[in-house]
Specification:
single chain, 10 helices, isomerase, galactose metabolism, Rossmann fold, UDP-galactose 4-epimerase, domain 1, alpha/beta, NAD(P)-bd_dom_sf, binds uridine-5'-diphosphate, Epimerase_deHydtase, about 325 residues, UDP-glucose 4-epimerase, 7-stranded parallel β-sheet
C-alpha cells in the first residue's frame, strides 16, 4: 500500500487519483487544515497530523504501508517570512516525525515534494539539479532541510528516495474532479480566473521592471497531472533500480506574467483587469527548469503542460469551484 501524506491537497489529490486509477492500494493521510475532505475520495483515508506521533504510529501499525509520497507542508512564501516558526514546526518537525515512523516500521521508500525555491536566486538558467541551493525564505529552507535529512538517512539507514523539485505547479484535473483550491489564493493563474469570474476586481502584476523582455517575471508552469505522473514514475524508479535521485520537474519553457494574462484573455474571452504593482519580495526574475534528468531517467515527458492546456483546465475547475 502507498501512503500519500497530504493526499487531500492540490498536487497530492491528483497523484492519489492517478494511483487509484492504476489499481494501486492507496491511503491518504491528511489533517485537513489545507486539504479538502471531498478530495479524499480515492482509496482509504486516515485523518491525523504529522505532529501527533501516536496517530502516526497507529497509521503505520494498522496498515501495510510499503512506500510513502510526502506532500504535507505549508507553502506560502510570504507567510513563511512573517511566521517562520509555523513553517519549521510543520514542514520540518512534521517530516522528521514521518521519517521516524517510517524507519520504526521498516518503510524505506519515500518520494518527497521539494521545490525550486530551494535554489534561491538562480545564477544560471535553465536550472539543473546541481545548481547551488541557497533559499531566500523560510519555506525554501524548510524544504532544503528535509532534503538533507533524507539524504543523511539514505546513507545511514538505507532510506531510498526521490526528491522532486517542482517549478510552478498549475492547471487542474482535465476531468474537473480536483484542482487548485487555496484559501487564501495567492497564485497567479487562479487569481486571473477569479478576476474573469468577477470574484476579484483585478490582478496585480508584481513588478514590471524586471530584466526580462516585457519587464514581468518569467516562470516555468508545469501541469499538475504531469507532476502526478512524475511521482508515479519516480516511485517505480526507486523500486525498479534501488537508486535514490533528485529531479527537477518543469517544462524548460518560461512565460512572463503578461504572457500568462494575455493567454488567459484569449482563452476565456472576458476582460481581465490588471493593476501594475510593486515587486513582491523574494521573487527572482526568471525561474526555468532543466528537467533533462527526469526526461532521461524517469522517461517522463509532460503531456498537458502547454500554457493553453494549463489555463483551459484551470478555467474549467475554477468555474466548478465558484459554484461550491
Ligand atoms: N504574480 C503576480 N500577481 C499575482 C500573483 C503572482 O504578478 O497576483 C506573479 C509572481 O510575482 C510570480 C508569478 O506571478 O512572478 C507566479 O507567482 P505564483 O504566486 O503563481 O507562484 P510562485 O512563483 O510564487 O510559486
Amino acid at each position: 500500500m502507498i501512503l500519500v501524506v497530504g493526499g487531500a491537497g492540490y498536487i497530492g489529490s491528483h497523484v492519489v487519483k492517478q494511483l487509484y486509477k492504476n489499481g494501486q492500494d492507496v491511503i491518504v493521510f491528511d489533517n485537513f487544515k489545507n486539504g479538502h475532505r471531498e478530495f479524499a475520495k480515492w482509496g482509504k483515508c486516515f485523518e491525523g497530523d504529522l505532529n501527533d506521533i501516536h496517530t502516526l504510529n497507529q497509521l503505520f501499525e494498522t496498515n501495510q504501508i510499503n512506500s510513502v509520497i510526502h506532500f504535507a507542508a505549508y507553502a506560502y512564501v510570504n507567510e513563511s517570512v512573517m511566521d517562520p516558526q509555523k513553517y519549521y514546526l510543520n514542514n520540518v518537525m512534521g517530516s522528521l516525525n514521518l521519517l521516524k515512523a517510517m524507519l520504526t516500521h521498516n518503510v524505506k521508500e519515500i518520494v518527497f515534494s521539494s521545490t525550486c525555491a530551494t535554489y534561491g536566486n538562480p545564477t544560471y538558467i535553465p536550472i539543473t539539479e546541481c545548481h547551488i541551493q541557497k533559499p531566500i525564505n523560510p519555506y525554501g529552507w524548510s524544504k532544503l532541510m528535509i532534503e538533507q535529512v533524507i539524504k543523511d538517512y539514505h546513507h545511514a539507514y538505507g532510506l531510498q528516495y526521490a526528491i522532486l523539485r517542482y517549478f510552478n505547479a498549475a492547471g487542474a484535473d482535465i476531468e474537473g474532479e480536483v484542482g487548485e483550491w487555496h484559501e487564501p489564493e495567492t497564485h497567479l493563474i487562479p487569481i486571473i480566473l477569479q478576476v474573469a469570474l468577477e470574484e476579484k476586481d483585478s490582478v496585480q502584476i508584481f513588478g514590471t521592471d524586471y530584466e526580462t523582455p516585457d519587464g514581468t517575471c518569467i516562470r516555468d508552469y508545469i501541469h499538475v497531472m504531469d507532476l502526478a505522473d512524475a511521482h508515479i514514475k519516480a516511485m517505480n524508479y526507486i523500486k525498479g533500480t534501488q537508486q535514490s535521485e533528485v529531479f527537477n520537474l518543469g517544462t524548460g519553457n518560461g512565460f512572463s506574467v503578461n504572457e500568462v494574462i494575455n493567454t488567459a484573455r484569449s482563452i476565456i474571452e472576458k476582460p481581465i483587469r490588471v493593476v501594475e504593482s510593486q515587486r513582491r519580495p523574494g521573487d527572482p526574475a526568471i525561474l526555468i527548469a532543466n528537467s533533462n534528468k527526469a526526461n532521461n531517467l524517469l522517461k517522463w515527458e509532460p503531456q498537458y503542460s502547454d500554457l493553453r492546456t494549463i489555463i483551459s483546465s484551470a478555467w474549467k475547475w475554477q468555474q466548478i469551484l465558484s459554484m461550491k
